[in-house]
Amino acid sequence: MHNLATVFSFEVMRTLKKKTFWITALSFPVVIGLVIAIIFFSSEATEKASLDTVNQKFSLAVTDESKVIEPQLLTQLNAKTVSSKQQGIDDVKSGKLDAYFYYPADLTKEKVQVFAEDVGLFDNNRYQGTAEALLAGSVTATTDPQIVAILQKKVGFDSKTYQDGAEYDGIKQMIAPGIFLALFYILIVMFGSQMLTSTTEEKENRVIEMILTTIKARTLIIGKILSLIVLAIIQIIAIMIPILFIYFQFGSQLSLPSVDLTNLPLDPMRISIGAVIFFLSFLLFTGLLVAIGAAVPTAKEAGGFFGIVMTLIFGPLYAVTLFISAPTSTLVTFLTFFPLTAPIPLMLRNAVGNLSVSDALIGIVILAISATIIMAIAIRLFRYGALEYSKRLSLRTLFVTDKKTSR
Predict the structure, then answer these.
(1) DSSP string of 335-368, one letter each residue
(2) Least enclosed by CB within 10 Å: which of 26, 130, 325, 383?
(3) What is the pTM of this model?
(4) Considering only CA atoms, which of 95, 88, 96 is closest in space to residue 61?
(5) How confident is the model at residue 266 (pLDDT cuts 50, 70, 90)?
(6) Nearby residues of 4 by Cβ (< 8 Å), 6 or more positions away
(7) Which region holds residue 48: left if phi is over 0, alpha if psi is between -120 and 50, else beta?
């Protein structure tokens, strides 16, 4: 136990002192903040440019064979009417007019035609925008406001659904259990390489020989895995605090969607299932990545397997709609219970509410057994591969007992 505590504290403190750990942890909220800022300022600039474009005046002539356009609207725009389409086009070509709109007799069969002087890719939009505004304004002025609201899809809706006689909001129900899915994704993406290389550093710098003279291989690998779990928790906290600060401090200024957390439904069963699946899934893939790192001689070679692991983890996301619409299908069942693809389907189905208690228990048992087996394999791989500097550890070597190297 003393050696285990020593390995654990050493691994945690060594990683926490690395700048790369904090850069990785803080880069995610920083990138999110930058993306939000870019979207905010670009949309603000676009809106300002659009307003400037709308306010720009230009000479205009109109031919309205549809008899829809209200004359007072043309008067407000200082637009003149011409009877000949060709005359309007010729006036634009000669520079007498900035724009000419032709409204055909049957708007359902023919297109409104806009002829105008080129004023730049963005500013050219003002012409069609004005032509559309003339149509909308004319129809609005002569149509019942309720019909206008229906056609413009401005009618508000207040929908309520019920489950077992009680009001049920499926979206809000997803938030609490869905957090575990989001955290799992973030940790594997951002922390996966650390898991993968945690057992190759000592092998590459040749200090593993000295370490194994005082500490058993089993103690060393368990200490590393436990330290990775604690470091992952620290990284979660480091990621979430800046995100929550940005949301609550600047959410209104950045026009972020507001979420009322005061009445957020908390289903103890689904949250507990999500937490257990998250922990076992993280343990499973931590052991898998550590095992890969123990089996190969260098971190560079270990990196080649990272893409395979990521494909196994996140490949099921391509069938995300199937998990929601057809949770009992054969493919969904296979992906849900196959250990290396199970985490995403289990957490996703738990979040949307179509994971039965029996399926959840089966999935948890499969993950627990798989994580235990993977951990045992990782320890055995490290035991036999710790001193292998030149080549990958073969399966034959792994399953042949060698008492001289066992500790």
Answers:
(1) HHHSTTT-HHHHHHHHHHT---HHHHHHHHHHHH
(2) 325
(3) 0.65
(4) 88
(5) confident
(6) 219, 222, 223, 226
(7) alpha
Query: Tell me, what's the pLDDT at 403?
Result: 44
The bridge status of strand 99-103 relative to strand 113-116 is: antiparallel
Domains, the chain, ordered by start:
2-31+170-398 (no CATH), 55-151 (3.40.190)
> Which amino acid appears at position 354 of this protein?
N
Q: Which residues pair with 64 in a beta bridge?
A: 103
CA dist 114 to 57, 64, 66, 183, Å?
Answer: 16, 12, 15, 52
Q: Are strands 99-103 and 60-64 parallel, antiparallel or unpaired?
A: parallel
Which residues, other chains included, contact 392 with Cβ-Cβ below 8 Å and sequence gap of 6+? 295, 296, 297, 301
Torsion of CA 32, 34, 38, 44, to 10 degrees: 90
- Structure confidence by residue, pLDDT tens digits, 44-77: 666 665 555 555 678 999 999 999 898 888 888 8
CB atoms within 10 A of CB 256: 14
Residue identified by tokens 């003279």 is 213
Which of 170, 183, 194 minimizes the C-alpha distance to 277? Answer: 183
Look up residue 388 and give its two tokens: 């292998």
